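Hi U.,

Before I forget, here's the chain from the pilot set. I'm dumping it here mostly so it's searchable later in email.
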Amino acid sequence: MSAPRMVVIGGVGSTRRTLEALIRHRANVVGVFGLRADRAHTTTDHQPLGDLVAMAAAPLVEFTNVNDRHIVTAMAQCEPDIIWAAGLSQLVGPELRALAKRGVIGFHSTRLPVGRGRAPIAWLALGVAPGAATFFEITDGPADSGPLLEQEPFEVDAADEPMTIVKKAEEAMTRALDRLIPRLNRGEWRTVPQDESAATHHGARRPEDSRIEWTAGAEELERLIRASGPPHPGAYTYLNGRKVLAHHATVARHARWTGVVGRVLATLDDGSALVMTGDGVLALHRWQWADDLSSNNPPLRPGVRLGMVAEDEIANLRKRVSDLEARVAALESGAAHRSSQEDR
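Structure:
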């Protein structure tokens, strides 16, 4: 029996790790579909695949939307038995799925059925799901609900940042792929249904979900800042209306301070700034202006207040609008007076 014809779709680290394993196990890769470089901003951890495509001796097709008609046509020409959609943030439509004679394989970095849904790395960093390199069949059902082909757990520690979690996930991927690909090369397709009674779901996370609410607890904010780090955009707050990115913070467990929430209490010898939160003190160790990424720990003087107070901002805006309305009325009155004088 000939080896199954395989196609890879994606453009991030997990896509690259999958393609590397397929090459290592001499799989029959007949096509690679990579996310266009000019669409890199639509995903995190974008990585080019050109060098691996050359090693696989397979054609490379770049896409913006994987379900576009010309992409479906190009995929059909590959006549795939198996399609790998590892690290693909777009849903694989029914037309594409129908092209795979054996099935479409997806990847998720939580221990499915726990943690289905979007932004798994961020949710892992927030400590709300167990980690695993999970390969499953993509079906007509809800996202991430298809039967499992292989799963390799990995531990997520309280101090793990997103990039360390990505590294652990990719290492677990390699172990899982080294078991799965040889079976597929032999024509084996063994799946295990997911336990629906154990399923949990995570919603999407957006950049604005990383805004620091200083009324939250110090431990919660420490997790938020850590989970929002690279490759994510970063947690943020404001200082005098200017956006500040917070990159690293720890709970100052032995600080004995009472203060106003969001206010900088003191600066330490190492340059860190102590900030009052809803239930304790957070030590900010690394931050920068969002509009000046060359900045490094711009001064946070004791006494300044981080964040925005909605009532104050609204009151200031109302005053500015009122002042502008008064100036416009004065200008209109002056213009009317001059017009009247000219008419005489």
